[in-house]
Amino acid sequence: MDNLKPPATITPDELSKLTLAWLNKYQLAPTPINYAVIYACSHPNNQKLRSELQQLIANNQTPDNYLLAELHQKYLEENLQADNETLSAIHKVIVNLQTVCEKSQSDVSQYQSTLHSQASKLNDTDNQHTVDIVNTIIVATEKAQLAQNQFKDSIYASQNDIKTLQQKLKTAQQQAQTDSLTGLANRRGMENFLNTLTSTSHICALLFDIDNFKQLNDTYGHGVGDIILQKVAQQIAQLLGPEHIAIRYGGEEFLVLMINQARDDVFMYAETVRENIEKLKLVHGKTRKRLPQVTISVGLSLNRQKLSVAEAIEQADSALYQAKSSGKNRVCLSS
């Protein structure tokens, strides 16, 4: 499936094998997001997705987890929201149906109780024909009561199924906001985070870039490159408070948005992360040989005036360029 378009006639099992083979060709793990993107490329409705990925490959851009996550966000995540809204609507219908069923069940129970009471009175009479009729009605009512109970049980089961599906969708939506390799937020996660901020929130942006990452990746392979990305992401995230957010912003670039944080604290955080990464001792999994030292360059937007997110990131990017130009493995502040 090099051209991402399978034969006209293909079984789901064959398509699954082709999807896994394509991911293996580019040394990509079959994570839910990676698998979903490549599998979706075969669907006629996903021509735009297929064309964009083919064009990226034609432009010598190697597919990686980050690239596929971006495509997943762009083309497939709206389906998750639509599915969730549909399930919510179905859940409301079931809840309403459950209320009607419980009311009906109560009415049948009351009617059944009345019949039993009247039947007891009829037993004191000599009108056997009337007694037989009432007893027949009682039996029919008991059957109706049993059917009501079974219907109620099926409604409860359906309600539980809907809740389970909603939880799975919620998990899928959370995963869709997360970079599958590093566990950090992706750009969709960043957008959702920004939507929670108030107009008084003061944003500081920090851009982290792994020095000489392409050389490390080309020399030691994608597997080692992925581990380096994970280790760096871990160092960035573990010192960050819950009111802030860390995002995988590019292939080897990470963005941190800190909210209402003092200037000195922001700089201290960046410098601590840089020092911790500099001290990492990484070993090649197969050869057990030490890998070259991993370092990062960091750019900070620390202008005291209130900035938009775009302005803060632009300032951080300029500061990062300065850090790279000044010898790397350092933290630079925007002017």
From TrEMBL:
<dbReference type="InterPro" id="IPR029787">
    <property type="entry name" value="Nucleotide_cyclase"/>
</dbReference>
<dbReference type="GO" id="GO:1902201">
    <property type="term" value="P:negative regulation of bacterial-type flagellum-dependent cell motility"/>
</dbReference>
<dbReference type="GO" id="GO:0052621">
    <property type="term" value="F:diguanylate cyclase activity"/>
</dbReference>
<dbReference type="InterPro" id="IPR050469">
    <property type="entry name" value="Diguanylate_Cyclase"/>
</dbReference>
<feature type="domain" description="GGDEF">
    <location>
        <begin position="201"/>
        <end position="335"/>
    </location>
</feature>
<dbReference type="InterPro" id="IPR043128">
    <property type="entry name" value="Rev_trsase/Diguanyl_cyclase"/>
</dbReference>
<dbReference type="GO" id="GO:0043709">
    <property type="term" value="P:cell adhesion involved in single-species biofilm formation"/>
</dbReference>
<dbReference type="Pfam" id="PF00990">
    <property type="entry name" value="GGDEF"/>
</dbReference>
<dbReference type="InterPro" id="IPR000160">
    <property type="entry name" value="GGDEF_dom"/>
</dbReference>
<dbReference type="GO" id="GO:0005886">
    <property type="term" value="C:plasma membrane"/>
</dbReference>
<protein>
    <recommendedName>
        <fullName>diguanylate cyclase</fullName>
        <ecNumber>2.7.7.65</ecNumber>
    </recommendedName>
</protein>
